[in-house]
């Protein structure tokens, strides 16, 4: 009886549909030389992102930093254990180029704040790839 009532529930289906309606876009992403030791692993690079998530008339922007080992020039295997993020803006509405430009003006400061929390440092003057915009 309990087994059948679990599968009769519409809640799991609703959650799946809700995920399908959510749009996540990397507004900005760029890799930089960096330094950070996290979970006993030395990291020599960081991926810095501005992420927009839109769902049911709500928009959320967050900055994210992921430190990764970068053991060679072509090693961009990002580690997910050294991923840190912070919500910068959340409200009713949709994506706005004007708002994104304002957030881009503070992205270095916000990413540095996240890096500092784990004794990391991002070298902004040493990009490893060109910026990607979405």
Concise overview:
The protein is α+β, with helices and mostly antiparallel strands and 134 residues long. The chain has helices spanning 2-8, 11-21, 97-104, 107-117; strands spanning 23-38, 41-55, 58-68, 83-92, 121-127, 132-133. Strands 1, 2, 3, 4, 5 and 6 form a six-stranded antiparallel β-sheet that branches.
Outline the fold blueprint.
Layout: H1 2-8, H2 11-21, E1 23-38, E2 41-55, E3 58-68, E4 83-92, H3 97-104, H4 107-117, E5 121-127, E6 132-133
Antiparallel strand pairs: 1-2, 1-5, 1-6, 2-3, 3-4
Textual characterization of the structure:
By secondary structure, this protein is an alpha+beta fold. The protein is 28% helix and 46% strand. The chain is elongated.
Defining traits:
disordered N terminus; 4 helices; 6 strands; 134 residues
């Amino acid at each position: 009886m309990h087994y059948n009532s679990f599968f009769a529930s519409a809640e799991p289906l609703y959650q799946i549909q809700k995920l399908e309606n959510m749009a996540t876009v990397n507004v900005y992403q760029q890799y930089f030389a960096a330094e950070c030791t996290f979970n006993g692993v030395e990291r020599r690079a960081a991926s810095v992102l501005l992420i927009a998530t839109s769902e049911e008339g709500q928009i959320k922007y967050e900055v994210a930093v992921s430190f990764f080992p970068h053991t060679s020039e072509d090693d961009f295997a990002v580690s997910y254990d050294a991923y840190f993020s912070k919500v910068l803006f959340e409200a009713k509405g949709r994506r706005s180029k004007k708002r994104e430009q304002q957030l881009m003006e503070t992205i270095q400061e916000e990413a540095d704040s996240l890096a500092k929390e784990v004794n990391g440092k991002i070298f902004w003057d040493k990009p490893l790839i060109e910026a990607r915009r979405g």
